[in-house]
Amino acid sequence: MHTREEQMQAFGRLLDVLDQLREKCPWDRKQTNESLRPNTIEETFELCDAIMRNDSHDMKKELGDVLMHVCFYAMIAREEGQYDIADVLNTEADKLIFRHPHVYHHSQVGAEHPRPLPYKPEDDQTSDDFSTAKTSGEVLQNWEQIKLKEKDGNKSVLGGVPASLPALIKAYRIQDKARNVGFDWQKKEDVWDKVHEELAELEAELKREDKEKSTDELGDFLFAVINAARLYKLNPDNALERTNAKFIRRFNYIEQHSIRAGRPLTEMTLEEMDQLWNEAKNNETAGNDI
pTM for the whole thing? Predict the structure, then answer.
């Protein structure tokens, strides 16, 4: 692995390359925050794909692309006299220090080179003491309350949930933030009554063929299932993505079989496709490639 000095040199090299491209490359020269945004979203999803595949080689590449975008936005802001990459980094470091009072003494907030200091909780002069957190759960509970105390932080508990988040991830984050301030089920097993209740209400509306109410009840049911996943420490987005990948693998198996047999999928019966689906499933269970 590289030394800290080598890491800083590599970061500086990236900034130098971006400066040169901004000056000499026609494409880079014309980019704006708005034009970069779709690419940033795409690069973020490509990183997420690499993470789901646990592909360290692709993760390294995609992390570089995401980092390049972070630096590019900061470069545009520098040109407009707003801030630069140093401001971005210092703001993030200050925020992390402020939100980790169990690691940093309150006197270290705003310090140029803060270091974790061993100290006794009674030494902390802040009005609300979060310095005693010892478990990850306690840290998360404190996190949301500390964010509300920041000068330019969230004005409400749910205020930090981005409106543009995909609905499934947003539901999880909403529930998790509410949990951090104590709004949660007392026993995780109790959530199943809610799941069953919402499923029954959905089935009832589906039988009435009321599309509007059925849509509402479907949302309530999905929200309850996501809640259950959270309580059992399962990530519903990761779980669904794994199922998506599994479905794609098995359906591709069916499609490849139809190509080899010279028969379009539209000419295969459902029974034939089910048989091939089960073959793909059995191959996966046996550890065979499909």
Answer: 0.64
